[in-house]
Design a protein that fits this description.
With 431 residues, this protein is an alpha/beta fold. The protein has 2 domains: 133 residues, Immunoglobulin-like (Sandwich), CATH 2.60.40.1180; 286 residues, Glycosidases (TIM Barrel). The chain contains 11 helices and 22 strands. The protein starts with a strand and ends with a strand.
């Protein structure tokens, strides 16, 4: 049976076509902490639930371990963003286009310098990236010149940032757009961005591929090969500043259980495909009707959804802050039913290897709006090098995104894994 296995090493994507039921390679590991660094969440610190429940939400961010938020240049954003930075070390991808001299639309391009100066004065230590405006193709209102305006805005913002001695090292992310037609209309912005920008909202599971309807926005490959490429023909590394699922079933939502499975796999699959950082939308549910109010990792009453626990557990296992290091390679094989199996090999600074593995299939019936429970697939994991491992600690997320931990022994350098639609992480315990 043919199988496609993709492994991402930072921004490089390697694709192997396997014509037998074995994956066998000396695989360079990826620093475990780079996965944690790729995780981000959207907030709205200037208003609504984020103001009334700020203390609780700050605690939830701290417990989860998320290091990056995405928020706007509203004046009400700066003080809480700096508080998060000083108390938790959380940095911000700062979204421009909500200028200090008036709301949308249309953009007043003369406001950009004022917006930059306000950011520098009030939140600069916390800024990790600067982002051009959000989804102006659907928020431009009566601005009939929106295409020219968003291009000019992006050029002016980039030029001013890169000509500023204090700001020039900060990466600039392109503007987000909501359709293939909008990306085509706005066109090439390569010389005015460090990273193209995608908002990835999928109807199906994170790694869904539709090779028949290749321009579908439910197909992850289409986002890469069409939308991101229009914005950056040179294929600069991508940031996904929004992505995720909501829980309002009448508008294409899914259950909290399925969302928990998909959330963990979304961060893993996007990282595997080379996305530098993914900002899930969003931290907390909103007092809004329909799907727009139910995107949160936590509910309105601040209780955790499975999606929150999924992210928290992945971060807790793989976090490994420290100086840069060059990981080793591990020679191993996966045999058996490897169809739709995804895996990423990580290593920590202490030398420990962590193999993340999951089954990239549907966990939600879109038509009938019910949870699916695909059967596990049995895979034989074989160490083929001289790496001496007596056993492995298995960290397995369950259907509720709670973490189950157990130890499996190696038998003649082999062990049997039952791979499911939930992420599992195998830590090799050396002798």
């Amino acid at each position: 049976m043919a199988s496609v296995i993709s492994l991402c090493f930072h921004s490089v994507i390697l694709i192997w076509i396997i014509t037998v039921t074995r994956l066998h390679a000396a695989v360079p590991a990826i620093p475990a902490d780079s996965f944690v660094e790729s995780i981000c969440v959207n907030t709205h610190l200037h208003g609504s639930i984020y103001v009334t429940n700020y203390t609780a939400l700050r605690a939830k961010l701290g417990e989860c371990g998320i290091r990056y938020i995405r928020d706007e240049t509203y004046s009400g954003t700066y003080a809480p963003a700096m508080d998060l930075y000083h108390s938790l070390g959380i940095k911000i991808n700062i979204l421009f286009g909500r200028g200090p001299s008036g709301p949308l639309p249309p953009f007043n391009l003369s406001n950009i310098e004022e917006e930059i100066n306000q950011m520098k004065a009030q939140v600069l230590p916390a800024v990790i990236t600067i982002e051009s405006p959000n989804e102006y193709d659907i928020s431009h209102g009566s601005d009939v010149h929106w295409i020219e305006r968003i291009r000019n805005y992006t050029q002016i913002l980039y030029t001013k940032v890169k000509s500023d001695e204090i700001l020039k090292a900060i990466p600039v992310i392109g503007p987000s757009l909501t359709s293939l037609q909008a990306f085509q209309a706005v066109g090439d912005l390569d010389q005015y961005i460090n990273h193209p920008n995608l908002h990835i909202y999928q109807r199906y599971w994170p790694g869904f591929s539709d090779f028949v309807n290749y321009t579908s926005r439910t197909d992850l490959t289409s986002y890469f090969n069409f939308e991101a490429r229009y914005q950056s023909p040179s294929r600069k590394p991508i940031h996904a500043t929004e992505g995720g699922y909501h829980n309002y079933l009448p508008q294409g939502g899914l259950s909290e259980e399925a969302e928990g499975k998909y959330m963990a796999r979304m961060f893993a699959e996007y990282f595997r495909r080379g996305i530098v950082r993914t900002c899930q939308y969003e931290l907390a549910d909103q007092v809004k009707t329909g799907g727009e109010g139910l995107f949160g990792l936590v509910r309105l009453n601040m209780t955790e959804k499975p999606a929150y626990r999924a992210v928290k557990n992945l971060i807790s296992i793989l976090t490994d802050k420290g100086s840069d290091f060059k990981p080793d390679s591990l020679n191993y094989a996966l045999d058996g039913n490897i169809n739709n199996i995804r895996h990423i090999l990580f290593q920590k600074r202490n030398g420990s290897f962590y193999l993340m593995v999951w089954l990239e299939v549907s966990s939600w019936d879109v038509q009938n709006k019910t949870d699916l429970y695909p059967p596990s697939q049995q895979v034989i994991f074989t160490l083929l090098s001289n790496y001496n491992a007596s056993n492995a600690t298995i960290y397995a997320l369950d259907n509720n995104a709670d973490l189950n931990t157990f130890v499996l022994p190696f038998d003649n350098y082999q062990m049997t894994l039952n791979v499911t639609d939930k992420i599992s992480i195998i830590k090799l315990n050396s002798i």
